[in-house]
Amino acid sequence: MFTGIVEELGEVTAVETLDDASRFRLRGPVVTRGAKHGDSIAVNGVCLTVVEQEGDEFTADVMAETLKRSSLGALTVGSPVNLERPMVADGRFGGHIVQGHVDGTGTVVERVPSENWEVVKVSLPAGLARYVVEKGSITVDGVSLTVVEAGDDHFTVSLIPTTLALTTLGTKQPGDPVNLEVDVIAKYVERLLGTRGGSR
User: Fold this and answer.
1) Which of 44, 32, 99, 108 is CA-nearest to residue 70?
2) Exposure of 191 by Cβ count < 10 A (0-12 exposed, 13-18 middle, 19+ buried)?
């Protein structure tokens, strides 16, 4: 489990295209510290498994389903990526419950800068809109954020200077894709209420 608090801005150093998958090599001095084969690391909000680790780089395989559902397929050598290791049992819960299981992708629609923050509007797939509520949590490219406005086909978030400087969201431009993970609690509640209602 992750919390959506990005530990460092890493970089893609190699991409190998396979028949039904891709293999990425990524640089991240912080997240590779103590990492070993089989460990999990979230890359732009997608939970990936470490296949190899050497120095400050690690390799991860990304299957076709993940490439289809996320924006990882658009990464190229040199692309910046948000990196986070799983939360440890005695760690601080700084964000919200993030599984690293991307629900879909949105697109940056608009950026409105102000003196101390920036409002970013992101398109929202129709199937995810019901899980997004004003002042609720959403994960965008692995970053835990609070929803400012929730529309039928979009939402907005306010980004503070730290988020702009230390994550990929500082450089995303209108038209760029972003990975979205909605609050898992909302999905469980919907499922439970639907099951109970159907059994009456």
Assistant:
1) 44
2) exposed
State the DSSP H helix or E strand holding residue 149, giving kind and residue range, or none if neither: strand 143-150
Supply the pTM of this predicted model.
0.90
DSSP secondary structure code for residue 135 in this structure:
T
d(C-alpha 173, C-alpha 166), whole Å: 16
Amino acid at 148: V
* Residue whose entry in the numeric block shows the structure tokens 């150093």: 13
Between the alpha carbon of residue 160 and those of residues 28, 113, 163, 169, the distances in Å are 23, 10, 5, 11
Question: H or E stretch including 178?
Answer: strand 177-182
User: Which residues contact residue 54 at a Cβ distance below 8 angstroms, ignoring those fewer than 6 apart?
Assistant: none
pLDDT digits (tens, 9 = 90+) for 27-70: 999 999 989 999 999 999 999 999 999 999 999 999 999 998 99
Q: Are 45 and 140 in contact (CB under 8 A)?
A: yes
Q: How far apart are CA 40 and CA 195, in angstroms?
A: 32
